[in-house]
Amino acid sequence: MVRMCMLGAWLLLAGSGCMQAGGPTAISSTETATFAYVHRLFNERYALLERRGGAFENSYHVYKSRVFDGMGSDSLWTVLTQWLQLLNDPHVQLVAPNKEVWYGHAVYQLRPNDDHFDIQRIATRLTATQAGEGYILGRLGGLGYIHFAQTGNQMENLAKAIALAHADSDLIIDLRHNEGGDFTYALKAFAPLNAQRRPIFSSRTKNGPGRNDFTPWFHWHLEAGSQPFLRKVVVLTDRYTFSAGERSVMMLRSLPNVVVVGDTTLGGISSVIPHTLPNGWIIRVSIQQILSPAGEAFEGVGIPPHVYVPGQPLPAADAPLDTALAILRR
Amino acid sequence: MFLLMLGLLAVNPPADSKKSHALSLSAGAAGHHRYDENVGALWERTRSLPFVQLDLLIQKPNKRHLISLGGASFADPKGRFSFGFNDTTMQAASANFIFLRQSFEQLYRLQTPVKSTNIWLGWYQHIELGALFHGHAFSTFGYLHQLQAGMAASMQRTWGKRLTAAAGFQFPLLLWVARSPYALNDDDFIERQASHNDLRTLAATFADGSLVAPWQYPQWRIEASCTWQVNKRFQCGFQWRFWHQQSKSMLPLAVNEQAILLKGGWKW
Predict the structure, then answer these.
(1) Within a domain: A186
(2) Is the CB of B196 less than 8 angstroms away from the CB of A185?
(3) Do A101 and B85 touch (CB under 8 A)?
(4) Which domain range does residue A10 map to?
(5) What is the pLDDT of residues A169-224, one digit of tens each?
(6) What is the pTM of this model?
(7) A58 and A125 share a domain?
(8) How close A70 gets to chain B, by Cα (Å)?
């Protein structure tokens, strides 16, 4: 029995020794190898080079000349973030040990006018309030109101807001400061607002390393609800409406009874994937191109509202919300 | 070492192929090393404790069937590193980057003894369903599922009435492989997971696989075990196994996984 145990231990050790044998050799983790890998990664997988990548591509040699082995991770971090900044893409993010996540868009870095929206202030105006993670809903000035902070399973609560408004009132869907998530939740949640199947956006994804290697265009539709809510709906947006939050706006603006009020959205609509660099850092890469049914590309510029009403610094009134109330009371 | 054990078993007296059946439950530890250019340029390492497996062996004088079900959740509890970020309320938060793998395996093996030797030869069918999760707070989901059939060979020897040692290997001849697409999160995948029902997503992603030639996705699995017959009905022992896979597709993939399991079983 002792011999058998020794044999088992031998086998385990022999196996441990070859756990990394017989596979690809990991790419060098030096600063120059990491920089070169980022360059290749964005050339092969980043879907928005034509739209966002002009300065980024043109300055490759400038930033490459600043990278050398032994420069240290802090210096590499500085060079990479300065170079990636040229994309000004909020989905491009860099994650490294013991550092704050770096966001690749000026709005997310500087957060201008962040305080023009305050959900707590709106909450004090609501009656019949219900709230949970990422949403709050209630009655506001005799209308139904719901705010989504994310685009996820909290969107299932739209049904409650519709029930609250259904009999006699219109609805406000507030997507200001919606930081995105998974737009397929919105796809399901918004069907009860829709009377007939309609196109909402088309997208295509990188499927190979070539500049034009993309999947065919995939046409997304919003399905019709069985007893749709067809009263007026105002959708509120701001510069912090981002990613799947913007896809939600694209769905809602396809409906004939919807008016979008507020500020232009952030303009970071693509899907994104994280990728591990040779030195262990994580980088996020946008991998899709998106078009509206009319062929508009909002990536980089944002989705403009039907009625432009920028927010104002606190403690001023919530002008976009008050405009929404005025439109629905007309 | 493994070849030495095979040699040791091969030169010994013919296998005991009397009728006997056994149901055993195994649990132990497993290590998973993975290089997958779909998600990065690093060898990821993670481990599982426990790794659980249920085996049913039906042995008749001229053939034996093995049905095996196993599952594991691989995660490094400490994560690879921690980082800071602003949570949904823009409050400072921190998280660990982790690599997590959840897997389920089903194996069926049918073998017959080779006359006057310790060797059993036959074929096997194996399903592996694997979900991959990279990151925390900034995460992505991937998958690698496969259905395979191929050759299985093993050798076995019993010392006295109580101690049995066995070793074997298997490799596929027919492969169905479903792997995350080039950019992981394409529209087809988004649509497949839109139900947010794990079983439906699993079925849809598995169905999206394709037949792959064995030389495009070479892999092999070896295993060794010792069993001690405690009394007429009860047996215990351990099993070690090692599994290597390597894809030669556009995005290279290599997986090495090993497990050591302690097992207890009921024999009749």
Answers:
(1) yes
(2) yes
(3) yes
(4) 6-110
(5) 899 999 999 999 999 999 999 999 999 999 999 999 999 999 999 999 999 999 99
(6) 0.88
(7) no
(8) 20
